[in-house]
Amino acid sequence: MDKQPTEGPELEASFDELTRTLSVSIAHDPRFPRIDALWLRRRLEAAGYAELQIRPDPIRRLIAQYNAAESVEAVEIAQCVDASMQIGVSLDGLVARLSIVPPKGGRPASKTELLALIESRGIVEGLLLDEINRAIASGQADELAIARGREPEPGKDGWLEYLLPETRERVPSVRPCGRTDYRDLGEILVVHAGDALMRRHPPQPGVDGVNVYGRPIMARRGRDLRFAPGLRGTTTSPEDPELLVAACDGQPVRVRNGAMVEPIFTVDAVNLATGNIDFDGSVRIRNDVQAGMTVRATGDIEVGGVVEPATLEAGGSIVVKGGVLGGLGGKTAGKDYSTHALRCEGSFCATYAQQARISAGDSIFIDDVAMQCQLEARNHIRVGKRLRGQIVGGHCRASLSIHARTIGANSRIRTELEIGMDTGLEYAIQEKAEARDALENRLLEIGKMLTFADRHPDRVTPEMVGRAEQTANALSGEIEILRGEEEDLQHRLALTREARVNADREMFEGCIVRMGEQLFKLSQDRGPTTVRLATQGLGVFPLEDDSRFDEPQRPAAAGPNASRR
Known about the structure:
The chain is α/β, with parallel strands linked by helices. The strands form nine sheets. The protein has a ten-stranded mixed sheet with strand order 20-22-24-28-30-33-36-38-40-41, with no helix packed on it. A hairpin with a 2-residue loop joins strand 17 and strand 18 (about 260). It is elongated, with a radius of gyration of 39 Å. The relative contact order is 0.07.
């Protein structure tokens, strides 16, 4: 028994070597009617028991009993605790982490004990001895990595190489800011039987990894990408099965996992003599399309002359070397052509358009004038290349930008412009998020099974663990793909919020700009002008240099033939 003759009542402390607990007793002394926890802590420090782990509840009872003028018989108030160590392994088995809780008056962690614990957990691969020694020397650790496995290196996916030159495109390339790189619109590209179209490159093997238990982690094999079945107008080369060649003359079209050769129907003009055209392929019209006629094609439509009030529908793009005369202005020669329209899944290009209804799944490009037209494009509307570049009257709608040299006219004609609306994007983002959540839930369940197998290795066979790890790796890859696609859609949605109307030279009173619920009416003529979303709704600004928005288009933006099939 240790007696402590310092200021305060007499305290006797006794340490039991067998139970490794500290007991104290206090005789009540009227000279010291009250004690507190601070006094008790100092007495224990003076007695050499400061490192022990204190038991709060017995101490509170001890103090209350003494302060009630009662002596306190022996009470266990502290205990000796050795350092504790715990090792956790990540779900993928690639990292083992150590936590050390320092001792409370007991033995510190030793390297011998730690190595024995590592061995008992079956950890044999990638031990980090420097980290282990550092943890033992410091006596504590918090989720310190002490072993790392070797991650598998996934195999390279197979890929398809398009062999035709892509320097001549019918559709001008557009950056997200709306800047346009005009090139020669050219003619429909034609290939002949036997011409090489695409080469298939086989997948490359990966390198297997190993987890901290020494078990192999199978590398994801490179995905084999083969030519899609049913590629019309093509065949594999007899000398090289990895080479796709044209089986006939026609227009090559890139599609998902391959290319097709579409037949090209060529006609001098479309009129009552030829009748309407409905063709599975591309259509080339050397001259004009007469009023009231209809031309439908699953591929592209190219018109060398003028399109009078008529209907053109293309699964690809529409190129009109002349202009378009629509029927929105009323009757022509006593006939109502207002229902006629030009629609395409790709882009639309023409020299001019007047009183026409035009819609494009990508962008609309008009060189000279768009007068009293209804234009709708998923991405951009651009008016102006070499000629005037003027939008006069009508209604234009595009998700990302409307750009012209001059918008409106001196006569203050009502010209409506709508930007930034693409409701399908939010639905697509929601679908991607839901699909990703479903895969993450499956991955979570597999992770729980792997954790159980780690804690109870005798109850789960190594084969089951291996299959579960492979499934987890595959799910992780699919989740990353979905997350990337979701980010691309989010990026495009962000671009729609930066949508703008640009007039390089003039924008006249009478122009109305809409963006969702926001409405802006131009109250006076202006010079070079930008209209875009500001802090308090739509605002008008001097023409802005939009080069800061220049960046490569994200994959979410479709190319000219991406939505063909």
